[in-house]
Amino acid sequence: MKHETRLVGAPVPTSGPEPVVALSGVTRAFGRTLALSGVSLSIAKGEILGLIGRSGAGKSTLIRCLNGLERPDSGSIRIDGQEITSLSDRELQPFRQKIGMVFQHFNLLSAKTVEDNIALPLKIAGVAKRDRLKRAGELLDLVGLSDKARAHPSALSGGQKQRVGIARALAANPALLLSDEATSALDPETTQSILDLMREINRSLGLTILLITHEMDVVRSIAGRVAVIDQGQIVEEGRVADVFARPVHAVTKSLLHGVRPQLPDFLSARLSPQGSGPALFSVDVTGEDAGLDFAARFADALGTTVTLVHGGVDHIQDQPVGRFFFRALARGDDIQAVAASHLARPNIHVELLGHEPGSH
After folding, report:
1. Would you give the end-to-end CA distance of the chain in angstroms?
2. How many whole angstroms separate alpha carbon 212 and alpha carbon 106?
3. Hey, which residues does 7 pair with through a beta bridge?
C-alpha cells in the first residue's frame, strides 16, 4: 500500500552545495517483497539526520544500498557527488572508504588490540604502518581512550567498545558516518555519552551523520532533522522539533507515543465527539510561543473557565516544544474559532479531542 509522504517543517534547501547524500526514487525488491519503494532523501553536509522506523520498515536495506552492499533495482544514489549505482564491484572498494560504519554490536576483532582495530581500514587501504598507527593514536585521543591503545576488546566496557568502533569508522576521514542502531545495546547513561561524542564529532569535524534507529530519544538528542520510514517509503520528514510537536503520519505518532505527552487513558476513554459536557482540547506548539498562557487566552476569549489537565514544555536541543491538554465549558466550534482568530500561527496547532460526560 502506498503512503502519502508528508513533510513537516523546513526541508533541506535544494540550492547551494550538493548534499553529501542524495537518493532519488530508490526501489529495491526481494522477490515479491518490496523493501524500498521510491525513496527520495537528501542529507546536507555537516547535518545529523535521524532515520527512524519499526523493524522491517526498510532501514537495513537502505543502509546496504548506501554502502554499496545492495544495488537498487531503480533510482539514483549519489554520495559526496558520485553516482554509485553504476559502479563496478572494483570501483566500489575505494568508494566505501568515504563511508564510516558504526554497528550495534561493535564488530571489533577480538584478537587485535584497540589501536590495530582502529587502524584496520587504513591497513586494507595500503597505508604505511607508521602512518596508520599515528592516525589511530589521534582518534584514540578524540574518543577519550588514549590509555587503551594496547588493550584488547575483551578488557573494555560496552561504551568503550563503541568508542573504538566510532574511532575505526573515522580512520579514513569519511564523508559520511552511518550509525546503525549504535546505542541500542547500551544502557541509558552510556547511550548518552556516545551520543554526546557523536555530537562533538559532528561539531568539530563537520562530519555528516545518518543515525538509523528505532528510538525516538536518540533522534531527539542530537539530530537536526528526522525522516520516518514505513513499508519502504519515507512517510514523514522534517525538523525534529516540528515533527515532535506535530507528527502527521500514524506511524510517527506511534513511535512518539512514549516520549511525547499523551492524554491520560482514563480521560480519553470518557470522550465522545458530541456532547454538552466539558470539552477537552490539545495545543501543540514550538518555539517561544510554547511559553504563552494558553489557559488564560482561551478563558478570556470563551468567557469561561479553562484549566490545564496535562502536558508541559520540553526542550529538543535548544528548541522549546510544548504539548498541553485543556478542559473548558465550551463547544468545539467556539474553541476552533478562538484558535483561528487569536492563535493563527504556523507553529501552533489546536485540536478538539472530544467532550466529557455532563452538562452545562
Report:
1. 45
2. 15
3. 237
